[in-house]
């Protein structure tokens, strides 16, 4: 949903904590800044995978 920036950042930090505990999270977004928190980014176009990017 549409969240204010402080709440959105808090949720992303909470997701990071869950990930560090061994949980897998799937986040779907149009906001590029959200991808800064991801280890893997899958770009879709017209319902098909256009790019699969992994980060360390």
Domains counted in the coordinates: how many?
1
General form: globular
Q: Which structural class do the helices and strands define?
A: alpha+beta
Query: What is the string of helix and strand elements?
Result: HEE
Strands side by side in the biggest sheet: 1-2
Number-wise, the strands total 2
Give the end-to-end Cα distance, rounded to a whole number of Å.
28 Å
Biggest sheet descriptor:
2 strands, antiparallel
- The parts where pLDDT drops under 50 for at least 5 residues are none
Helix content bin = 25-40%
Strand content: 15-25%
Q: Report the C-alpha radius of gyration, rounded.
A: 12 Å
Rounded mean pLDDT is 92
Number of helices: 1
Organism: marine sediment metagenome
Protein name: Macrolide ABC transporter ATP-binding protein
Tags for this model:
two-stranded antiparallel sheet, alpha+beta, 2 strands, 56 residues, P-loop_NTPase
What does the model show?
This protein has a two-stranded antiparallel ribbon with strand order 1-2. It contains one helix and two strands. It is globular, with a radius of gyration of 12 Å. The model has no long low-confidence stretch (mean pLDDT 92). 29% of the residues lie in helices and 23% in strands. This is Macrolide ABC transporter ATP-binding protein. InterPro entries: P-loop_NTPase.
């Amino acid at each position: 949903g549409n969240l204010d920036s402080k709440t959105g950042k808090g949720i992303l930090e909470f997701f990071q904590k869950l990930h560090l505990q061994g949980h897998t999270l799937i986040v779907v977004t149009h906001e590029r800044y959200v991808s800064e928190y991801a280890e893997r980014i899958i770009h879709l176009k017209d319902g098909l995978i256009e790019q699969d990017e992994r980060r360390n």
